[in-house]
Design a protein that fits this description.
With about 270 residues, this protein is α+β, with helices and mostly antiparallel strands. The strands form 3 sheets. A 5-stranded mixed sheet has the order 2-9-5-4-3. It has a 4-stranded antiparallel sheet with strand order 1-7-8-6. Bound molecules: zinc ion. The site of zinc ion has 7 residues, from loops.
Length: about 270
């Protein structure tokens, strides 16, 4: 699933083409990606509205339509693309939501496997949605102390805590693995056993890696594409994710892979991370 840097990349790519544009008559090929909104209401409320702003919250892209906000949670195979030409047959086949813009272009949510979700929230719905998600790791007011607060109160594995969207927004498996390696912390270590120094290092490395990944337009392991349809480049810079059994870049020890934390693959160096 796209994480913070991938969704941030998509949002930055599509924003200039969308802000201030009015949407024409929206169409939807399947209802199964809708959450908490009926097809009828979505088509009625989104069609004709003007896009005030486009931004990211956690791993989701948000279109502010004035009274309502359209939240797109791209699944593994989901992408948001603005086309300035007619769609090809293959592009049209996997286009789930199509929204013509008043300048002749078209905003498309494409999702081959339709694991993504669309929400349409009013003011109160938005408050509830955003209040349930933890702080943004790249926000200026997100400090090492703030990260420490979330970690100090949990006996669970540190990796599980930083991937829990209620504690921290936008971090998934790829960047959790990378940040813990960079910070020299064993992913299975109980969060409450981390020191203040660990909090500082993890905070610093999380932010550094998320920013570097945004600068490289995100990580494409399989399906992820940017808002212009291109693959990202950060997969070339991953130090542990996808490298199980290969030598640690820092000390040469074979990297260990385990599914012990939340059934997700954790890859780490047992020598460099403690
Ligand atoms: Zn190592």
């Amino acid at each position: 699933m796209p994480e913070l840097p991938e969704v941030e990349t998509i949002v930055r790519d599509i924003r200039p083409a969308l802000v201030g544009r009015q949407l024409g008559r929206v169409s939807l090929s399947h209802d199964d990606i809708l959450r908490g909104v009926s097809r009828r209401r979505l088509l009625r409320d989104v069609s004709g509205s003007t896009i005030q702003s486009v931004f990211r919250r956690a791993k989701h892209a948000v279109l502010d339509l004035g009274e309502r906000r359209l939240v797109v949670q791209p699944g593994m195979t989901g992408s948001l693309i603005v086309y300035d030409r007619p769609l090809g047959a293959d592009e049209a086949r996997y286009a789930v939501l199509r929204a013509p813009l008043d300048d002749g272009r078209e905003l498309v949510y494409r999702d081959v496997r339709r694991i993504g979700k669309l929400l349409l929230l009013d003011g109160r719905g938005w408050q509830r949605y955003t209040a349930a998600i933890g702080p943004e790791p790249l926000a200026p007011d997100f400090t090492a102390d703030r990260l420490g607060e979330a970690l100090r109160s949990s006996r669970q594995a540190v990796k599980k805590v930083i991937m829990d969207q209620r504690h921290l927004a936008g971090v998934g498996n790829i960047y959790a693995n990378e940040a813990l390696f960079a910070a020299g912390i064993d992913p299975s270590k109980p969060a409450q056993r981390l020191t203040v120094d660990d909090h500082r290092r993890l905070h610093r490395e999380l932010r550094r890696i998320l920013q570097a990944a945004i600068a490289s337009s995100g990580t494409t392991v399989r399906d992820y594409r940017t808002g212009t349809g291109q693959p990202g480049n950060f997969q070339l810079e991953l130090l542990v994710y996808g490298r199980e059994g290969e030598p640690c870049r820092r000390c040469g020890t074979r990297l260990t892979g385990t599914h012990a934390i939340d059934a997700r693959i954790s890859i780490f160096c047992h020598r460099c991370q403690s």
